[in-house]
Specification:
- The complex is a heterodimer of chains A (307) and B (121).
- Chain A is of the alpha/beta class.
- Helices cover 41% and strands 20% of the residues of chain A.
- In chain A, the strands form two sheets. A five-stranded parallel beta sheet of chain A has the order 2-1-3-4-5, sandwiched between helices.
- The longest helix of chain A is centred in the middle third of the chain and has 26 residues.
- In chain B, helix 1 runs parallel beside helix 2.
- In chain B, 50% of the residues are buried.
- Classes of the chains: A alpha/beta (307), B alpha/beta (121).
- Chains A and B meet through helix 6, helix 7, helix 8 and helix 9 of A and helix 1, helix 2 and helix 3 of B.
């Protein structure tokens, strides 16, 4: 039986929505009179499979409820019931993570269809999340062109992997993403395109102009970034190698030395070292291995799991 | 007030308020640069002496944002002005501490406080 929680401060609307939903014998309906009441009910009786909520309510409105559910019960989808005048708050609620909306004047025609559609999608996602919760190891290799947008997508992919593995919570996940981003950008600009950080400082224009020119010239444009990841529940090991000539990481000035605060180089590696447990370069200086071990906050951002 | 895709700027007295609007990652460097040049030009030619950077819209930032702030600071210093940050997230504060930039710039909680501090009032 699928449980739907209807949240509305109007008793008439609650009855109307409940009646529409109960036309489907597989749906069991629960009720709450505002957002705070909904959360309290969820705490006492466990989360519903789906929440259908009004937007303008006392105590806690629909927007706040969506944000709370997103934070604490990310697998519980929310459908908004919108009425004239609540469009702005509806847009914000959709941005905050609501799954869909139905105008109140069209409830009779559209509510059940919308509920069924959202439940199908959620069921697939939930099944996949449950499966991934049993993954013990993930190994993968990527070969990237010197394309920033691919780098950005790869960082997001790895962030999802480490969170799914329960290796860290959301806070550490952001730090891992920042370290990977710095390493990948170093590989792209300093490694493959051989643009030196001495071009930075007074004005970054020369730096990016040179990068843009070289990305169209041989041999720079043919070079690739090779990324390997080995992620288990205990640690994640990322290796990022470029096809440039390499550099000597020990030759970099310590950017935290007051005398070097003026210099533009070294801050990316500094952030990598701060956010990962281990950062090592190969002898050629064109490959860096970053290691992150399971962190204490690994349960903080862990997504809520349902049996 | 001027609003680009990445920065919002506003001149308040002799202070230039700069609000980064998007999470400027290291990846967006070539997109950041033209707008950053506009901000720097305002400092050179627009008559602003001090800068307040309000980071309230950024959850975190990396080396490109640090480099951008550093460039603004150099311009400000040439004018004997002050640079003050505000609205910095916890992770942002951590990044500033790691780079030791917290030793260079004053970090205030709120924008109003930062504007007063930058103006030297």
């Amino acid at each position: 039986m699928t449980t739907v929680l209807v949240v509305d401060d109007s008793a008439v609307d609650r009855r109307l929505v409940g009646g529409l939903l109960e036309k489907d014998a597989n749906l069991q309906v629960r009720y709450a009179i505002h957002g705070a009441d909904a959360l309290s009910g969820i705490k006492q009786r466990g989360p519903a499979d789906l929440v259908v909520t009004d937007l303008v309510m006392p105590e806690m409105d629909g927007l706040e409820l969506v944000a709370n559910l997103r934070e604490s019960y990310p697998h519980v989808p929310t459908i908004l019931m919108t009425s004239r005048g609540s469009e702005e708050i509806a847009v914000r609620a959709l941005q905050a993570g609501a799954a869909s909306y139905v105008p109140k004047r069209l409830l009779a025609q559209e509510l059940l269809d919308t509920v069924h559609r959202v439940l199908v999608v959620t069921s697939r996602q939930r099944g996949q999340t449950r499966l991934l919760a049993h993954m013990a190891r993930s190994q993968c290799d990527f070969v990237l062109e010197n394309d920033c947008t691919l780098v950005e997508s790869l960082v997001r992919y790895f962030q999802d992997c480490v969170v799914q593995m329960g290796l860290c919570g959301e806070a550490e996940c952001i730090r891992i993403g920042m370290a990977l981003e710095e390493a990948l950008v170093n590989a792209l600009y300093h490694g493959n395109l051989e643009v030196g950080s001495e071009l930075r400082g007074e004005d970054d224009s020369a730096f990016y102009l040179t990068a843009a020119e070289r990305s169209r010239q041989s041999p720079f444009r043919e070079r690739r970034i090779h990324v390997g990841a080995d992620i288990t529940r205990e640690e994640a090991v990322f290796t990022i190698r470029d096809e440039g000539p390499g550099f000597n990481p020990t030759s970099l000035p310590d950017p935290t030395d007051p005398e070097n605060l003026e210099k533009a180089s070294g801050r990316g590696i500094l952030l990598m070292r701060a956010f990962m447990d281990n950062v090592d370069y190969n002898s050629a200086g064109n490959a860096v291995t970053l290691v992150k071990r399971r962190s204490a906050d690994s349960s903080i951002g862990k997504r809520e799991e349902r049996p | 007030m001027k609003q680009g895709k990445l920065f919002l700027t506003d001149k308040i007295g002799r202070t230039l308020l700069v609000v980064p609007l998007a999470n400027i990652s290291s990846l967006a460097g070539e997109h950041v640069q033209p707008e950053l040049n506009t901000v720097l030009a305002e400092l050179e030619e627009g008559g602003a002496k001090n800068v307040v950077i309000d980071l309230e819209r950024l959850d975190y930032f990396g080396s490109v944002m640090l480099a951008a702030m550093h460039m603004m600071w150099k311009r400000v210093r040439e004018n004997d002005g002050r640079m003050v940050l505000c609205g910095v997230s916890e992770l942002g504060k951590e990044v500033l501490q790691i780079a030791r930039f917290d030793t260079l710039w004053t970090i205030c909680g709120r924008r109003e406080e930062a504007l007063i501090s930058a103006a030297g009032e």
